[in-house]
Amino acid sequence: MSPALSHVTSSPRFPRVLIAQNNFSTFESLIDAFGKSRLDLDFDLCTSRDGAMRKLVDSPYQLIISDAHLAEMDNFSLLKRTQGRDKFVPFLITANAANTTEKESARQVLAHGAFDLISLPLEYEQTVSAILLALWQSRFMTLIACKEKAVEKYREHMAAYPSGNQMDATFKRTLSAIQASIFSYQQTVLRVEGFADLAAKVEAQARKRALERLDGLRP
């Protein structure tokens, strides 16, 4: 007996992708693209907005691929739930060139912060490129968060150094060297625009190209 279409889950691997699609042929095309490009992904399929919302609560994901209409439903609730998570999760949408309503839905979802567009009928190279960039951005944002948390944790830890314990000269020199290295590292990051600024530019460029592709789609 085949699994229910409303919820299909692959074997556990990483990264994890939530696919929100009510068109099974689109889902099959995406999975075919995963296989051809040898993208080793763990994926869940939901065919309703409510099902996708529940999965977002229960499981961590590194990428969402949603039908434009599902993403737009109930005042963009699926997109907003994704944006409200502690960690950045890129949100890709699919839109069919033959469906004017779907194209307008895609335009609205992109305007509300979706990361990129996969146009239908699915084009293999564009699909894989969009997925790879989204996963790269997901990992990049995780690295940025880890860096920021590490520096903040370091400051908190040093501020909590027990005042009754004296530092000997060797320890002070070692600590000063570490602090100087961290300061130098932070200054270097600032000189190359800062990781967060770069991430914002990557996202803005992806969205700009998505809107350009959407405008170029013809029924």
Number of domains: 2
Strand order of the largest sheet: 1-3-2-4-5-6
The separation of the N and C termini measures 37 Å
By CATH, the topology of the largest domain is Rossmann fold
- The CATH homologous superfamily name of the largest domain equals Response regulator
Described by the principal axes of the CA atoms, the overall outline is: elongated
Largest sheet, if any? Answer: 6 strands, mixed
Rg calc: 22 Å
CATH architecture of the largest domain: 3-Layer(aba) Sandwich
Tell me the structural class.
Answer: alpha/beta
- Work out the strand percent: 5-15%
Mean pLDDT comes to 82
User: How much helical structure, as a percent, in the residues?
Assistant: 55-70%
Number of strands: 6
Determine and state the CATH class of the largest domain.
Answer: Alpha Beta
Low-confidence stretches: 1-11
Characterise the protein shown here.
This protein has helices at 24-36, 49-58, 68-83, 100-111, 124-159, 169-191, 195-216; strands at residues 7-9, 16-20, 42-46, 63-67, 91-96, 116-120. With 219 residues, it is α/β, with parallel strands linked by helices. The chain folds into two domains: 7-136 and 211-216, 3-Layer(aba) Sandwich (Rossmann fold); 139-198. It has a six-stranded mixed beta sheet with strand order 1-3-2-4-5-6, with helices on both faces. Helix 1 (24-36) links the parallel strand 2 (16-20) and strand 3. Helix 2 (49-58) runs parallel beside helix 3 (68-83) and helix 5 packs antiparallel against helix 7 (195-216). It is elongated, with a radius of gyration of 22 Å.
